[in-house]
């Protein structure tokens, strides 16, 4: 293990970089109208600054195993921090949407490299007996910015300018780069490393970008009524199928899909993606709805998400103890029951305030605090220790990209359902007449507010039923890790962690 005097620099620098990557993704969630104004575009197009960050965040994850083996952990960390900092600088300077999307892609690539790299460094430079605690610290470093980022971004956007999100991040990236360079040991380069799967990466990149265009622009062009969207969707399908075929035959693939043959891996990953994508989708949609319908500014729209962090952080710190008391499968089930309770208890009106939104968000935070540790350990259960980095890279890629699907689909559903409700209200007014003394613009505003809120409530009910189904699947079909351990099987981090917290 590395000299213990340099470990604080390693942990602080790596955690700071990981948190900054998450912060730059989350800080824009509640200020899309402000970004739209700064870039002279619409809020729908401003949403691309979030979705393009996420898609490149997931792509960055696939680069980490090969680049670390080829260049060493320290050089990869420095490169990732430098790429993200460069993107941050361009984001702070540009007034053009397309240049902003390019800079957000750079930020996403850098942040994506840091996700599996930071997890690997944390586990490699800590005792085995502390792996459970280190995993909790790693997940908090990644998640806490998602809770506080929207409020920070909202405050900066309303008091200064949304570009200060990027200006203030720049010196922190520099500090993280310096601490990481000081704490991460040099070496680890392997010039005989197998060649990078450039063809596979090209197919994956092109496929994900075609899928992203379909998700982002489908509503604008009328979905399947548009040949443009049909062609981009077909291109995405063909390219991603070619990528899967390529990975199954490549001697050194980017992603290892054969792990999906294990029940705990694919089912645990499916549940993790569902919980994470729903959270990310609502974290983007609720602040936007509050600003456009309730009249909140960017700061108060971001404050809506703070109760999630108030509950999630304390619960996540107790996961070492809770998994020993209840077991991983029961915790995963309870997580989705809490999600269902949060989405089911959220019933809003155009007159709702923070008090009505606080308790559903608090319940959501309780569930989110239980999401990562039990499902991550279930996903990795039964996998030999030497294969865990490959399995974790594949699962992290799929989980991160699932957030993009959640953000896009929840946004599209809210828009479409709101439009349907608005049309129904207008037809009712035309049929029965307007007996009030309201002017036409005032009445139109009330109809839009009611329709948008009804759409949010319907989507909350749908999310509740999805989480209830997920809870049933978790309890009925996940296999507790202890049940699949066989005598003489290769030891893994999951087995060790299970033994450490086993109740007396």
The gross shape turns out to be: globular
Biggest sheet, open or closed, and with what strands and sense? none
- What are the low-pLDDT stretches, counting only 5+ consecutive residues below 50? 486-504
Output the radius of gyration: 23 Å
Helix content: over 70%
| Secondary-structure class | mainly alpha
Order of helices and strands: HHHHHHHHHHHHHHHHHHHH
- Would you identify the CATH architecture of the largest domain? Up-down Bundle
- CATH 4th-level superfamily of the largest domain: MFS general substrate transporter like domains
Please, how many helices? Answer: 20
Number of strands: 0
How far the N terminus sits from the C terminus, by CA atoms, comes to: 31 Å
Mean pLDDT, all residues: 85
In terms of DSSP E residues, the strand content is under 5%
CATH class of the largest domain: Mainly Alpha
Oligomer: single chain
What is the fold named in CATH at topology level of the largest domain?
Growth Hormone, Chain: A
The number of distinct structural domains comes to 2
Pfam family, one: MFS_1
Organism: Acidithiobacillus sulfuriphilus
Protein name: MFS transporter
Membrane topology: Multi-pass membrane protein
Characterization of this structure:
Keywords: Membrane, Transmembrane, Transmembrane helix, Transport. It is a multi-pass membrane protein. GO terms for molecular function: transmembrane transporter activity. It is found in: Membrane. It holds the Pfam family MFS_1. This protein has 504 residues and is mostly helical. It has two domains: 1-185, MFS general substrate transporter like domains (Growth Hormone, Chain: A, Up-down Bundle); 253-504, Growth Hormone, Chain: A. Helices cover 78% and strands 0% of the residues. It has 20 helices and no strands. The protein has helices spanning 7-26, 32-39, 43-46, 48-71, 73-93, 97-124, 131-159, 164-183, 198-221, 227-249, 263-294, 298-303, 306-317, 319-326, 328-345, 354-369, 372-380, 388-432, 440-477, 493-500. α9 (198-221) runs parallel beside α18 (388-432). The longest helix is centred in the C-terminal third of the chain and has 45 residues, at 388-432. The model is unreliable at 486-504 (pLDDT under 50).
